[in-house]
Every structure is written in C-alpha cells, then in structure tokens.
Specification:
It is built from no helices and 18 strands. It is mainly beta.
Length: 171
C-alpha cells in the first residue's frame, strides 16, 4: 500500500490517506525477439538463446522467460517459443529456418588389373540422396549405375554426384 500524508495548515488539520498499488505481470508477447538467422541442418536438435527486449531493455532467460522449440531438428521451418516467468506472463512464438546442409561424401581411389571382372563403385555420405557415377574416359572403363566394367589399360577420373534429400543439398 501507499500512504500519503499532509501537514496541518491554517485551514486544515493534518491528514493521511492510503491506497493500494497493484502491479501486474507484463505480457511477454509484447517483447521483441531479435531475428534468428538461418541455421544449417546438423542432425541434432538446434537450440538458440534468443535476444529478447522489453521496453528497450534486454530481459534474461530463466529469470524472465524460458524457451521451448518445435520442429527444430530437420531442414524446414522451426519454431521458438518464449514463455514468461518472474515478472512476465504469456508466450510469444517466432519461426526460423533450418537450411539443408552440404553432405560429406567419401569416395576412395581404386586400382584394378585389366581382365578383372566387373565391380561396384561405392561411396558413403552423410546424406541419403542417390549416387550417380560418371567415368571420364570410356576407353578405360564404363559404368552403368554403380557397376563398372574395365575396358582398357589407363587412368581415368571417376566422379560421384549425389542427389538432394530432405536435409542435404545435392553434391
């Protein structure tokens, strides 16, 4: 409560009055959340500590709000929700984008002898996209799918490409 007192003067006796001041929690929905830059797919849940301001002052995670996430693992649109605590109530949700990553492809050199039987090319990747193999010199070897046939003696480049999947770009 707030009490105000007035001193006595020539016309009035001294007096006091009391009133109740009630301060309610502020709605965190009125806070501002700094734009979240695009995040790159990692294979794990992506969590961010956002910068949140209220009336031009930065508010503090755990003291003033907590954070929860939805759809924050795979490429696409994810959501971050701040939930008011302490002097704040309510929620505010913002979206951010998880962009596809560039896959890591492992593809090793191969040495074969003329006359050996057909063999399969194999590459490994962090992505599940389909592989496509190409051979630069068809006088050395040819490839259909991943099955490689030795045609003649020599050295050639073999290139592997990979199609995109839900979380990785083509490579």
């Amino acid at each position: 409560s707030v009490t105000v007192s007035q001193a006595e003067d020539a016309n009035y006796n001294a007096a006091t009055a009391t009133m109740t001041l009630t301060v309610s929690k502020a709605d965190i929905a009125n806070a501002s959340i700094t734009a979240i830059p695009d995040q790159t797919y990692t294979g794990s849940a992506i969590t961010i500590s956002p910068t949140v301001t209220f009336n031009s002052s930065t508010v503090t995670q755990t003291t003033d709000y907590t954070v929860s996430f939805t759809n924050n693992t795979n490429a696409g649109t994810a959501s971050l929700t701040i939930i008011g605590t302490g002097n704040f109530t309510g929620t505010k949700t913002v979206s951010f984008t998880i962009v596809k990553a560039t896959p890591t492809i492992t593809f090793s050199d191969i040495t074969k002898t003329y006359g050996e039987s057909d063999f399969n090319l194999t590459a490994t990747s962090s992505s599940t996209g389909a592989f496509t193999y190409t051979i630069a010199d068809a006088n050395v070897a040819t490839v259909t799918g991943s099955t490689t046939t030795i045609v003649g003696v020599g050295t050639t480049s073999v290139t592997v490409s990979q199609g995109e999947d839900a979380n990785y770009n083509a490579a």
